[in-house]
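Protein modeling request. Please complete all fields; requests missing the sequence field cannot be processed.
Requester role: graduate student
Desired output: 3D structure, token encoding
Chains: 1
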Amino acid sequence: MNLKPEQNGKIEFKKFIEEIKQNFISQCETFDKEIEKQFEILAQQDQYYIDLLNSNILIPNQFNQNINSLVDILRKKIENWIQYRDKCYKDISEIQDTLQNKVNDFNQNLLQQLNILYSLKQKSNYQNISTLEVIGIKKQFSSLKETKLQVIYTKNNEMIYLQDGEILRCDEIQDYNDQPQIMKNLEQIRHLIWHGSYNLSAQKEGKWYPTWKGEKIDAGGTYQLNGIKNGQWIELSQNFWDKAQVFEKGKYSNNKRCDKWEFFHNNQLVSEGLYSQNGLKNGRWSDLHDNYHEGNKVILNGEYLEGQKVKKWNIVLKGTQIGGGYYNEIGEKDGNWIELHNNFNENNQIIEQGQYKNGQRIGQWDFKQDGKIIGGGQYSLIGNKDGIWTELHNYYSKDNLICYQGQYQNGKKCNKWKILYKSEEESYQEIIGGGNYSENEIKIGGWIELHEYFSNFGQVVYEGIYSNGKKNQIWDIKFRNISSEFVVIGGGQYDSKGIKQGEWKELHPNFSFQTQIFYKGIYINGKKSGEWEIKLKQDEKNLMALGGGLYDENQLKNGQWIDLYENFKNHCQVRYKGEYYKGKKQGTWQIKFRESTLSKIEIEIGNGDYDENGIKTGEWVELDDQFEDMEQIRYQGKYVEGIKTGIWKRQKRINGKGNFVSDDDNENKQFK
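Delivered output (672 residues):
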């Protein structure tokens, strides 16, 4: 048989591994038998002396005078035996320690070889993976909302984050032994960069520090050999962003957290606890809620046992207990619990109340707000939703009183589901959407769904047909004012595979009744292509051009573009004008401002340059994060390779009129 080289190598390697395994097992069995024999001999000899001491020995009268000598002889024999026995046990223990060290060395060497194989696998994977669709979160005015983005692995070992044709971030994959984590917080993707150096093995070494929006942060620490963290570190919380700037301070030992760690927000200690030698949380802890931020300062108090939550845990908001429950000895929730809804915050306090058994929800669970039940349903004994349920919209609030109502069977939605809406002023719920599910929770037939950011002031729905769970044919985008009927304002067509094709008119994320912004252009096989326009509705008949530009064949922005400020509103019309090259901003970009749709005057209020990698460089005039019509603040200073340096002057436009002048009430920012 004429095998290929790789096939022959595979067979030989498997044979080699099998021989090693059998040889190792055989030697272990032989060694185990020999040690077992040695223990039996020692045990028999021990028993001999025990029996001798316990026996009633008759000593003839003629030997009574020598009894003391006999006792001395026996005592010496026993003492000698004990010394010999203890030495045997010590030798066996040393053999065990030596073997353990050898096994550890073997495991370490094997791990290194596996890491090499993993590195080869990762290189191969990165060259083969194209695009991943990811659900992330982005800042929408003053809160975080879900959003879609793409993560692309390139043949050049790059990890690219992409949204709406713009490359948000491009990271080079350096260390293949350290599998890169996909970032999902768009604020971090855009603004958080770690700076430091790599050794010849592509592992991090020396001092590393972060920058946020180009500003150096007093955080970071040191990597020792082999990319291991050691000593004092200041790290950023997992969900770090403008409204949740939480710093975690403590010590690393051999890449594991140890001893006491403290968590600070706005320079105030908000949480602390101890890590064990294994790098696991231990003892009493105060954890921050996953969605902790300035408007949701929720703390979880309880006890850890080697990284596992145990006993009673309390959920606390500003010193007041608002929820909690018990964990059993293996870290599973048990008994009665009060938990927080996904959209819980200080101004929208929604709780979920019910029972756990061995970590699974069972029986009736109620959703409550201000003491009133607003939703809920039953879980089966195995933790599946069953029967009629009333679920809350992800962003349920007083401005967004939306529920979904329908039936579950064995944990899956089935039959007809309704979408219910109630304005704060009305006492009844209105059916504004819904449709049918077939088996396996697949949408079929006609459906009316809600726009991602549906609210009282932006009541937008999608209406169309599902075929086997995929959108098909024409889908309309409909809108209504609070008291009017829904009317078609946009939409387009899906093909039989559920992919957008042809001309589409879509809504900007900031769409509302007061600021009706549209995108208009063509999709080819689900990708935006050619020219796309951004337009603003002026009146019942007219749309005003706001911006837009061209997408290339890969749905990357290319050429001259006009983008909108992330907080663009009718009375705060800020636009960015400049050039893209294959999804990256290049050259000079201008920041333009117009006070309202009625104003014909647009002024330049900022500008600066991007280098060929889309990184800010040189002199810049940029807007404050909270820039708006009544608070027009900007900063002027210099970037070097994306990092702010020197003095940045704060400037303010008084009452939104005239020129920007130095803001004497606030100090300028100084950067190293």
